[in-house]
Amino acid sequence: MAIFTDPVREFADFGPGDEEWLHLLVGDWQLVADLAFADLVLWHPAPGGTYVALAHVRPSTSHTVFHTDFVGERIRRDLKPLVEEAWTTGQIQRADEDHWTRDAAMRIEAVPMVRNGRTLAVVTSHMDLSSSRLPSRLEMTYRQCAQDLLKMGTQGLWPDFATPTGSRRGAPRVGDGLIRLDAEGIVQYASPNGVSAYRRLGGVSDLEGKSLAEVTTGLLKDRRMVDESLPLVVTGRMPWRTEVESRGVTLSLRAIPLRDGSRRYGALVLCRDVTELRRREMELVSKDATIREIHHRVKNNLQTVAALLRMQSRRMGSEEGKLGLEQAMRRVATIALVHDTLSQGLTQNVDFDELIDRQFRLAAEVASPGQVVRTERTGSFGGLPNELATPLSLVINELVANAVEHGLGERNGTVALGAERRTDPDGSVWLRVTVSDDGVGLPPEPRSEGLGLQIVRTLVTSELAGTIAWEKAVGGGTRVVLDLPVAAA
After folding, report:
1. CATH top class, domain 372-489
2. pTM higher than 0.70
3. Rounded distance, CA 179 to CA 207, Å?
4. How far does CA 430 lie from the centroid of its chain?
5. According to the CATH classification, is domain 6-154 in 3.30.450.280?
6. In Å, what is the CA distance from 99 to each residue of 27, 85, 103, 292?
């Protein structure tokens, strides 16, 4: 995704940290849009004496007043004077009269975002006025909170670099529950969803007029497990996040101190019941551990099967039977190696380069008991889906063994493995795998395929949905080319 400041970076006078501050603003301004029941647009001066829209956010608490996306477009002529005045004065500017269009009636404000005494951008707020009903206490409180945050933006106090930017699921939003505190941490207002969240935590019927810190700590049964950041969050002193758990219910809390210069006059605390989210996360962790354990046990079982085949082959009197058991043992060991790799990770993809490095050398050594075979590998397979790792490992194992046994015969030589990814114009990603040797080359007359090559052809065409071709290698020998479709990373 393109960075929204790219269009103005060449001529913008950004100082150290300015661009990061704007990114922090856009990453968190959904909060203000929801509180203000308004669309927010970020503007920056552009060459030619105009302004360009860098970003736009719509409220989730109300319907939007802009149904078309105009990011990247120049500012309208009627809006430019208001934005220009805000940029020049560094003060919030309100339109003298409401703006009426064919689709909606809007109240517009322009708020300069100032950092270190310099205006970096202007945020315009566009609030829909089509609803004629009187605003409720909740709406009035929300809008006041939005005004407080925007005013802090004119002083460079919001957004705060101390705000956590982690991506953990369950971060509270305005609609989940909002509590407004005064400077002493006393609840001035709690939204219905905020009261409900605390009621689920422990039976609190009302929050207003009470100390949120005392209410929260009074609900905790085991205070030894309390997050150290909890007191600073529930008193609104630091812009942090924390979680509190009681009676099987987990609340996610986020505090936003309200400041005017160096004076802290209150705070907003967002709360959200994340009990179900955390329960599902624990289930996923448990399932991941179970899957890893299954792969580990399958690997152990396959290694046991390979050991039994090895013991049986030593008892075989027939050389043909012994060779067949040894080949079966090698195939089982290859599958076991894939399960060993899968048991060590949680992702849906396998680092195939790490896996194939071990297998490639092992396959060449096992197939060449009486000669010296060098191995060379070029290119990168990258991450491959789990369902492709096992069949591709078996195919490479069989092709390497075939190159040693039939390509080189009893001669010393080199077996090379190459991998190359490409992306077609239609966006599909392909992997080309080559296995080559410097041996005797292709036979003049086609011969019947053995079990190994039958396995290869079946796996390539069915499991891997690819193609396979044999050709003469440059400089002598044989080259096998696989073309396989893979999912884009």
Report:
1. alpha beta
2. no
3. 9
4. 24
5. yes
6. 28, 17, 11, 61
